[in-house]
Amino acid sequence: MTEHPAPPPPLFDRVFINDPYPAYAWLREHSPVHRTRLPNGVEAYLVTRHEDVKAVLADPRLSKNAATSFPGWQPGRTGIPGEHRSGIAAHLLNLDPPDHTRLRRLVSKAFTPRRIAEFEPQIRRIADELLDACERTARDGDGTVDLIRGYACPLPVAVILEMLGVPPEDQAIFHDWAFGVVDRGSGRGGVGRSVKRIRGYLRETIHKKRLNPGEDLLTALVRASDDGEHLSEDEAASMAFILLFAGFETTINLIGNGTLALLTHPEQRARLLADPALLDNAVEELLRYDGPVEFATWRFTTEPIDVGGVRIPAGEPVLAVLAAADRDPARFADPDVLDLGRAATGHLALGHGIHFCIGAPLARLEGRIGFERLLARHPGTALAVPAESLRRHSGLIMRGLYELPVRLAPEGP
Ligand code: HEM
After folding, report:
1. Fewer CB near the last or first residue (10 Å), C or N of the chain?
2. pTM of the predicted model, to two decimals?
């Protein structure tokens, strides 16, 4: 008698949102290229095996530009909040070569690893100031603090604002917007409005920087040139916006998901406390184990392609599931085990191919300092609620927590 696999587990329900990994194991094994209807009604192909995801991310026959490759596509589905209302559709993640190549080269010149390394002392200072504030909140309240709101969220926003050169007196609106995005489940709304204001602000500030240059990233974006070619003020504003957006929720989720993983794996946390030299590797393993970006952004087939033995017709949306690829037993031994000492390189949490995360050096640095400062100051930090009660965002692209209430403790576990 032929054995039939168990029916596919439900995708996108509450159980899946909290822990999608069993469903991804099923998909990798039984339907690695899986056509399904997404919660927004769109039919798309989900690709879940590491080898196939890597191939999809590097395949030039898959386009990122919906305007040319998928005319029926509605704007605002990239996962970028308020994108369609703010006129920022033409950015790196929505473009193909040669436009993508030109813009990416120009921004790489402004956003170099050397420039990012120079920010290490500032990032450490910001992390410490935020932890001071968290300690005050815990002391003045019931002894607990929400690490998402108090630490993971303001850290990347403050860092990128300092890098861009946004003066301190103008930063409040950015923080409001950031909290609005993180809090979107509470129905506060207004994210689209904030996005519009931020874009207007960036455009105006870029114009001022052209006239009055500083030593900051906005000035570098305005000045970046390639064979005499410059970013227009509008392109520079879109670029600043995408750096802000792409580096913000992702880094929150790295610190949020990573801290949760450390708190729920005390033996791994103890290992890291005993051997801080493990930190860089720990960041890679935390990216792999429960990464901030669950699905890569939308791609569309420009011609029929074969992925993992399945023919996908032309003009179809394809989603590469990074979180599934990074738990593939064909690539990582015991993939569901958190092991801060494993060789986690080769994970796809930061993407692959021409759209590989341009902010990866900053993401890694913020993650390293974020975990290091929290552990050094509060090695005995413990969850203030059962892990099962924590709520996760239900958005398609990002994987993150609404809140992470903890008790900070200066002594080790
Ligand atoms: C832990 C934090 C981060 C993670 C996990 C992450 C992940 C990713 C991934 C998976 C992609 C590729 C998406 C795709 O191919 O569909 C990407 C692209 C990108 N990321 Fe990040 N990112 C992080 C932080 C940052 C930061 C801090 C910045 C900048 C400040 C940034 C800027 C970008 C940009 C501009 C792109 C588009 C690159 C292109 O299309 O050429 N990211 N990121």
Report:
1. N
2. 0.94
